[in-house]
Amino acid sequence: MSAPTLHPLHHSMRNHVIRRTPRDMSSVHLDHETGETLTKVVLAIFADCINSGKPLQDALLAIYLSGMNHAIEARKDNQ
Fold it and tell me: Which has the least CB within 10 A, 8, 9, 29, 34?
């Protein structure tokens, strides 16, 4: 039996959500494997922060900064 996984939206709501891009932001379409990998990274960072007693705001900031760092490194690799 596989372990339960966390998903950004409950499966019953996926077809009802209108996907709008926030103002001044772009979107990126990721393949399933990349999305799963990013989800694992985010959940690991979140769990580490919460388990160490950090407030939610600090956990979200750590996730954001990690994403920015990964984006910078990916851009360096593509140049």
Answer: 29
| Closest C-alpha to 36, from 2, 12, 61, 59 | 2
How many CA atoms within 13 Å lie on the side-chain side of 36?
Answer: 4
59 near 50, Cβ under 8 Å?
yes
The string of pLDDT tens digits covering residues 30-63 is 888 988 888 899 999 999 999 999 999 999 999 9
Instruction: Tell me the three state secondary structure of residue 5.
Output: coil
Nearest to residue 39, comparing CAs of 77, 68, 73, 5? 5
CA neighbor of 38 nearest in space, from 16, 8, 61: 8
Tell me the whole-structure pTM to 2 decimals: 0.63
d(CA 77, CA 9): 32
